[in-house]
Design brief:
The chain is α+β, with helices and mostly antiparallel strands. It folds into two domains: about 300 residues, di-copper center containing domain from catechol oxidase (Orthogonal Bundle), CATH 1.10.1280.10; about 160 residues, Jelly Rolls. The protein is about 25% helix and about 15% strand. The chain is built from 13 helices and 14 strands. Strands 6, 7, 9, 12 and 14 form a five-stranded antiparallel β-sheet that branches. Strands 8-13-10-11 form a four-stranded antiparallel β-sheet. A three-stranded mixed β-sheet has the order 1-4-5, with helices on one face. Strand 2 and strand 3 form a beta hairpin. Helix 1 packs across helix 4. The chain starts with a strand and ends with a strand. It binds copper (II) ion. Copper (II) ion (CU) binds next to helix 7.
C-alpha cells in the first residue's frame, strides 16, 4: 500500500520531493508523442495549440489527441472520479520513472494541504527556486505563477483555501435547479459544464487561480497540469473527497449507473499502454488498482492514516422544491471597482425561510429551508483577475471588505475563458456558481435589517493577500444573471 504524505510534513531535501523533481525532468525530455511525457500528461487535462508554451512538431495523430486530450471534467459530478483516475495513472508513470532512475518503488504523490494554517498557503519551498540547492535547473519551478508565489508569499487568502463550505455540504450531487452540493451536478461528458460542486469551486478553483495569478499556468485548464504543483493540489482535493465521505454515515457517493459506469475515461498506464477506467473502479483507494491511502498531518483532528471510504448509497431528497424569488433582468459587467446589482424579491409560495421563517429555523417546516444566490453564465474573452468576492446587502457607501460577515463566497475565474468558448469541447455558456447565504440572511433577519422585498449584491475583485497592488484587472467579465432561490 502506498501512502500519500502531506508535503507540509516533508523536510527540505526529502527523497519524495527530490525524486519527484528528477522524474519531472526525465518526463520533460520525452517527446509529446510519448503518452508518458510531461507535456502529453498535461494535454490530457486540456490543450490549446494557441497557448502551448512549447509548440513543436511532431504532435500525436489527431485521432489520438481527440481520444485522450482535453478530457478534464469540470462543472460535473465526474470532476472527482475523473481527476482521481488522472492522478492515479500520472502517479504510476512518475513512480516507474523514479524506479528507472534508481529511486524507491514506494514513491507516492504528496498532497498540499494549504488549508492547514496561513503558512500552509506558501508554495512548498522545493517548488519556489529556479535552481536546485546543489546547482542545476529545478524542474519543480515554474515562473508562470502569481506574483509572490515564488518568493514565499502565501498565495490566495483564508477564504480561497477554506474547506468549510465544501465539507459542510450534506449531499454529493447538486440539488436542482442550481444548489451546489459537495461533488457537482449530474451531467454527461463535461469539459466545463453546469453548476460546479462546492469543492470544485472552493478550495479547488480558488486555489488554482491563487497559485496561477492573473496569467500563470495554474489559472487555465490548458496549462494547469504543466505546473508540477498541480498534482499535489489535486491530491489534496482527492483527499478531501475521502475526508468528506468519512465525516458522517449520511455522506455517500451517487448510486446512479450513469455516474458509476456511464462515462469511459481513457488514459495510458505507466507502460504507455491504453487503459479504460470508469467511476466505479476508483471509489475505494485501497483496492489493488489504486493501492493508496492518505496520511493526515500529525496533530490535526483525525490524524493518522486515512483509508478510503468508498461508500455508495441513497442520497436524501430535498424537503422543499426550490423557488426562485428574484433575478437581475440584465447581464452584469464586473470590473476593478465594486459592482452593485439590486433586484426585487417576491414572497415565496412555500414555507418562508426569510422574515418569520428564518427566525423560527430551529423547528417546524421552515427548519430545512435554505437560501442560495446563483450566478450564471459567467464569461470572459480573455483572462481576468483570479476570483471575485460576492457580498449581500452591504450598506450603501460602506467598503465591502470591512463586512466579512456579509461575504457570500468566492467566484473563482479558473477556466472562465475556456468555458466561454463555444467550440466542440466547450459549452460556451461560461462558469456557474451557487453560493449559500442562509446564515447571512438569518443574521440580517435577527438584526432586523433584512428587507424581504429586495436584495443588493456587491461584487469586488479578490486577490492574493500578498500581491494586492500587483494585479490589475484589464479584462471585463460578464455575469449573465444573478438570482436568489429558497430551497
Ligand atoms: Cu484542477
Amino acid at each position: 500500500m502506498h501512502t500519500r504524505k502531506s508535503v507540509l510534513s516533508l523536510p527540505t531535501g526529502d527523497p519524495i520531493l527530490v525524486w519527484y523533481e528528477k522524474a519531472v525532468a526525465a518526463m520533460k525530455l520525452r517527446p509529446i508523442t510519448n503518452p508518458t511525457s510531461w507535456r502529453y500528461q498535461g494535454a490530457i487535462h486540456d490543450y490549446d495549440p494557441a497557448t502551448d508554451p512549447f509548440p513543436v512538431a511532431p504532435m500525436p495523430p489527431a485521432a489520438q489527441q481527440a481520444k485522450y486530450w482535453r478530457k478534464c471534467q469540470h462543472g460535473s459530478w465526474y470532476f472527482l472520479p475523473w481527476h482521481r483516475a488522472y492522478l492515479l495513472y500520472f502517479e504510476k508513470i512518475v513512480r516507474k520513472t523514479i524506479v528507472g532512475l534508481g529511486g524507491p518503488a514506494t514513491w507516492a504523490l504528496p498532497y498540499w494541504d494549504y488549508s492547514a494554517n496561513n503558512n500552509a498557503r506558501r508554495l512548498p519551498l522545493a517548488f519556489q527556486s529556479p535552481t536546485l540547492p546543489g546547482g542545476g535547473v529545478n524542474h519543480l519551478f515554474v515562473a508562470q505563477r502569481a506574483p509572490g508565489a515564488n518568493s514565499n508569499t502565501p498565495v490566495g487568502s483564508a477564504a480561497s483555501s477554506s474547506t468549510a463550505s465544501a465539507m459542510g455540504k450534506p449531499q454529493f450531487i447538486n440539488t436542482p435547479p442550481p444548489v451546489a452540493q459537495f461533488g457537482g451536478g449530474s451531467t454527461g461528458f463535461s469539459h466545463n459544464g453546469a453548476f460546479v460542486g462546492q469543492l470544485e469551486s472552493t478550495p479547488h478553483g480558488s486555489m488554482h487561480v491563487a497559485v496561477g495569478g492573473p496569467t500563470g499556468w495554474m489559472s487555465a485548464f490548458d496549462t494547469a497540469a504543466l505546473d508540477p504543483i498541480f498534482w499535489l493540489h489535486h491530491a489534496n482535493i482527492d483527499r478531501l473527497w475521502t475526508l468528506w465521505l468519512n465525516s458522517a454515515p449520511s455522506r455517500v457517493n451517487p448510486t446512479q449507473a450513469t455516474w458509476l459506469t456511464g462515462l469511459v475515461f481513457n488514459f495510458h498506464d505507466e507502460n504507455g499502454v491504453p487503459v479504460v477506467i470508469r467511476t466505479n473502479q476508483v471509489l475505494v483507494t485501497t483496492a489493488p488498482l489504486l493501492d493508496y491511502v492518505y496520511q493526515a498531518v500529525p496533530g490535526v483532528a483525525g490524524g493518522g492514516i486515512i483509508a478510503a471510504a468508498g461508500v455508495t448509497g441513497d442520497t436524501p431528497v430535498p424537503q422543499n422544491p426550490a423557488e426562485m424569488l428574484g433575478a437581475t433582468s440584465e447581464p452584469v459587467t464586473l470590473g476593478i471597482n465594486p459592482v452593485h446589482a439590486q433586484f426585487p424579491l417576491i414572497a415565496p409560495t412555500g414555507p418562508a425561510p426569510a422574515g418569520g421563517g428564518l427566525v423560527a429555523r430551529a423547528g417546524g417546516a421552515e427548519a430545512n429551508r435554505k437560501v442560495f444566490l446563483c450566478l450564471e453564465n459567467i464569461t470572459a474573452a480573455s483572462r481576468p483577475i483570479e476570483s471575485y468576492e460576492v457580498y449581500v446587502n452591504v450598506p450603501a457607501g460602506a467598503n465591502p471588505s470591512s463586512h466579512p460577515e456579509l461575504l457570500a463566497g468566492l467566484m473563482p475565474m479558473f477556466g472562465v475563458v475556456e468555458s466561454s468558448r463555444g467550440d466542440d469541447e466547450h459549452g460556451g455558456s461560461g462558469l456557474n456558481y451557487s453560493l449559500e447565504i442562509t446564515g447571512i440572511v438569518a443574521d440580517l433577519v435577527a438584526a432586523g435589517t433584512w428587507a424581504p422585498a429586495t436584495i443588493r449584491v456587491t461584487i469586488i475583485p479578490h486577490r492574493n493577500e500578498g500581491d494586492r497592488e500587483a494585479n490589475v484587472l484589464t479584462k471585463p467579465v460578464q455575469v449573465g444573471r444573478i438570482s436568489l432561490y429558497y430551497e
